[in-house]
């Protein structure tokens, strides 16, 4: 068993103030092993879980003023932050329990974790020494999980005044929590855009890989495609894929007076032109939607499709392989979930093939888009 000791600079590093616009990414080449079998996936998973758990534990010592400064906010919702922290701890415990099932095959990062108290205890003691086989990975991973936790806590601090994917309003909203361990769903936002037009490349790549995904489209962009191309062309484009809606325009649906019409028009168009591909899912732009919308979605037979693994490829924040590396790190941390690539950004054409190559022998699975959220 390779020993695991944590770097002593943890508390000092948490004093640094990161800009709210920063997004976390991790150079996966710092990890010394390929994910060439399910056991090695678990080893890497245990390492990321313990590192994030350490960051979460340290964050509990911050008072409200410290959090405001760190997150760059004047007003924060402490009750929301506390609720999200509790949910994260529950996820970490469940994930570590899955990840430690292979400890008899490789004991790296295996510690006695039986319940929440022992998880917190092990997170508090987790260290890597300079002589560790994983020493080169330790500091980049620590920095990644600090910044990633900042991202989550900032969204929690703003919720529900500013809605996002950080929390659900009810069972009609789905975010991948219900997927089995090691199972992931590919989704793509802004997937009917004409320029840049990455959707043909994406759908063809998935078909050649014997895979599928859920493509969320704007009604206005589907209409624009139909003005230039035939219905048959549209149907060929999305062959063997699933198509949900993001509304008529890419704008927040939380305070838009016509938000219901936006969704209804889009559903009518997509369902009519792509009956074989349509799935009754609404992906809210920016994750923003109304807290009181359940009666509408129930009446429409729709579910709200959120996500829990964000490649941060929107608006060019992260480039190709950087985005893929972030996704892989979060897959190791959360062990299942919904990935939301942005089809409008060219980064996906690099990130997706890189990700599939890295995970080809890792024992993970990809959820069929027709089975998701049922």
Characteristics:
8-stranded parallel β-sheet; disordered N terminus; globular; 9% strand; TIM Barrel; 374 residues; alpha/beta
Please outline what is shown here.
The chain is α/β, with parallel strands linked by helices. It has 13 helices and 8 strands.
Specify the CATH architecture of the largest domain: Alpha-Beta Barrel
Q: Quick one: CATH superfamily of the largest domain?
A: Glycoside hydrolase/deacetylase
**Which percent range fits the helix content?**
40-55%
- How many E-type strands? 8
Radius of gyration: 21 Å
Distance between the termini: 42 Å
What global shape is seen?
Answer: globular
Number of domains: 2
What class do helices, strands and sheet pairing give?
alpha/beta
Query: Helix count?
Result: 13
Biggest sheet features: 8 strands, parallel
Give the low-pLDDT segments: 1-21
**N-to-C SSE string, H for helix and E for strand:** HHHHHHEEHEHHEHEHEHEHE
Reported by name, the CATH topology of the largest domain is TIM Barrel
On the 0-100 scale, what is the average pLDDT? Answer: 93
Return the CATH class of the largest domain.
Alpha Beta
Beta-strand content estimate: 5-15%
């Amino acid at each position: 068993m390779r020993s695991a000791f944590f770097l002593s600079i943890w508390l000092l590093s948490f004093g640094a103030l990161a800009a709210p616009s920063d997004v976390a990414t991790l150079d996966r080449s710092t990890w010394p092993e390929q994910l060439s079998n399910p056991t090695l996936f678990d080893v890497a998973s245990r390492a990321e879980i313990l590192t994030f758990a350490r960051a979460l534990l340290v964050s509990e010592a911050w008072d409200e003023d410290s959090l405001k400064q760190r997150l760059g906010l004047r007003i924060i919702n402490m009750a929301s932050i506390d609720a999200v922290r509790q949910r994260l701890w529950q996820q970490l415990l469940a994930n570590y329990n899955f990840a430690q099932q292979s400890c008899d095959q490789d004991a790296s990062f295996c510690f006695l974790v039986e319940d929440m108290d022992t998880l917190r205890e092990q997170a508090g003691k987790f260290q890597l020494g300079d002589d560790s086989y994983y020493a080169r990975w330790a500091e980049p991973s620590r920095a990644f999980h600090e910044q990633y936790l900042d991202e989550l806590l900032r969204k929690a601090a703003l919720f529900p005044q500013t809605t996002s994917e950080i929390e659900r309003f009810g069972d009609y909203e789905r975010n991948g929590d219900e997927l089995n361990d090691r199972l992931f769903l590919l989704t793509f936002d802004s997937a009917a855009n004409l320029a840049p037009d990455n959707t043909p490349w994406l759908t063809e790549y998935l078909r050649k890989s014997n895979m599928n995904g859920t493509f969320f489209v704007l009604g206005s962009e589907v209409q624009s495609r139909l003005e230039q191309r035939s219905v048959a062309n549209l149907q060929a484009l999305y062959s063997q894929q699933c198509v949900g809606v993001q509304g008529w325009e890419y704008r927040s649906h939380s305070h838009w007076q016509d938000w219901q019409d936006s969704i209804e028009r889009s559903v009518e168009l997509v369902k009519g032109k792509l009956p074989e591909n349509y799935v009754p899912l609404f992906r809210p732009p920016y994750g923003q939607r109304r807290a009181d919308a359940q009666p509408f979605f129930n009446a429409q037979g729709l579910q709200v499709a959120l996500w829990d693994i964000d490649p941060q490829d929107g608006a060019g924040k992260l480039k190709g392989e950087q985005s893929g590396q972030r996704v892989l790190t979060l897959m190791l941390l959360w062990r299942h979930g919904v990935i939301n690539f942005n089809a409008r950004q060219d980064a996906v054409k690099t990130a997706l093939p890189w990700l599939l190559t890295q995970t080809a022998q890792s024992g993970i699975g990809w959820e069929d888009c027709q089975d998701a959220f049922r």
